[in-house]
Amino acid sequence: MAINDRLGLKAMQVSRESKSDEFVSIVVPCFNEEAGIRELLARCRSAASDAVGERYEIVLVDDGSADGTWRAILNEMDAHSDVIGIRLSRNFGHQIALTAGLSAVNGTVVFVLDADLQDPPELLKPMLRHMKETDADVVYGKRKSRVGEGRFKRATASIFYRLLREATDVTIPVDTGDFRLISRRVADIIARMPERDRFIRGMVASVGFRQAPFEYDRQERFAGDSKYPLAKMISFAIDAFLGYSMILLRFASLAALAMLVVLCVVILYSLYEWLYGRVIPGWTSLMIIIATASFFQLVALSIIGEYVGRTYLATKERPLFIIDEIRRSAGERDLPGD
Ligand code: UDP
Ligand code: MG
């Protein structure tokens, strides 16, 4: 019986595949990437054959593209047998497209890549080696440099990752995108997590196991423009903060604390003024009532915030814990219930 059944808890236990003969699934979400598909596949193929021979597949997810992306994927499928094409019914966004890809993999390790070749597929081999050497379940690409991205993008990304690091409980590595190599069991856990506002790098970090960084230089986009305009970047950042910290909800508690200080000052000051008869009648009581009322309102809000926050996190139905392995000492023993 699984330990989680026994404990009656929502937990996940996943077994680890043997790492000796990897089968690599390359997952690429594509949104209006028609111009780059050919080059992408050519480079993925040569990188994969170099690393694992024939033992790979390429899962392309068309995230409701409006251009000829799907046609380009179909063309590739006609010419080669290593492609799995998934077409979403509309544009669901990068993170959901990626999840769709993760849920369709057959491999023992999963290589997550952007369609624009900013993250070089050729790193598959060294990353696989790094995974073996460090015995890690996740090898995440850490950007040493970002070529061809504007100052604004680099600055906002840098601030975002650092703020997020301060705000969250799980350690989400800085300067890290979705470019990574993950074991199948981690991919399965992520694909099975039912939360709706998905921030995959946070989800991967929260899964645990051993996670090793791999430094690389981020390249320029091969073709087309960034599919992350400012509005999408902001909504992405909001997903990250809302999903991985209660910091915004805790704002009311902080405000209540600040209000308590204001309240004390106001009471002391208005009483002092009143004692010396320097105030218009009614001012003292008015000030005290206003400050006290605001304080209690903020306290009430922060209590509600705490309940809402906990309910919100509970609706995400994240596993309470994830078990790496269970071992039992050798020899037969009678266990109650067996
Ligand atoms: N993408 C997607 N759906 C979207 C937006 C982007 O599948 O709604 C894909 C896109 O095709 C690319 C990856 O997500 O493969 C990253 O997007 P992009 O390169 O535009 O982001 P940036 O590198 O500029 O942050
Ligand atoms: Mg890109």
TrEMBL record:
The keyword Mitochondrion does not apply. It is a multi-pass membrane protein. Residues 25-187 form the Glycosyltransferase 2-like domain. Its main location: membrane. It comes from the Bacteria. It is found in: Membrane. This is Glycosyltransferase family 2 protein.
